[in-house]
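Re: [ENG-882] Designed sequences occasionally contain unexpected residues at chain ends

Forwarding the minimal case from QA. Structure tokens:
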């Protein structure tokens, strides 16, 4: 997932209910699918951020050696400015990029 190329909004947006429920015909099913996808996206982002911050980890027990790492701060700021996972999930849903299946059908 390329987080830099997403068109998901960073701020709160009101969506058309008809557009949300159009693929499934049921707004509750659509919201459930988007919520599950948001959890997946959140896990991916968390894993990616943890891997990047591991590069800066120091394993010293001394409190005197704590210092600010500019690269670490930049990485953290980048992830703070990203759209939230639910916004990314809704954008994927509206763009038709979310694959789903109903096992009952």
């Amino acid at each position: 997932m390329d987080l830099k190329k997403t068109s998901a909004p960073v701020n709160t947006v009101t969506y058309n209910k008809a557009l949300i429920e159009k693929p499934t015909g049921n707004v509750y099913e659509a919201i459930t699918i988007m919520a599950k996808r948001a959890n997946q996206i959140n896990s991916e982002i968390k894993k990616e951020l943890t891997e990047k911050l591991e590069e800066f980890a120091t394993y010293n027990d001394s409190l005197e050696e704590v210092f600010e790492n500019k690269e670490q701060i930049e990485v953290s700021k980048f992830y703070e400015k990203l759209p939230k996972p639910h916004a990314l999930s809704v954008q994927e849903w509206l763009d038709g990029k979310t694959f789903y299946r109903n096992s009952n059908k």
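QA comment: On inspection the terminal residues look reasonable. The chain has a mean pLDDT of 85. Proposing we downgrade this to a documentation issue.
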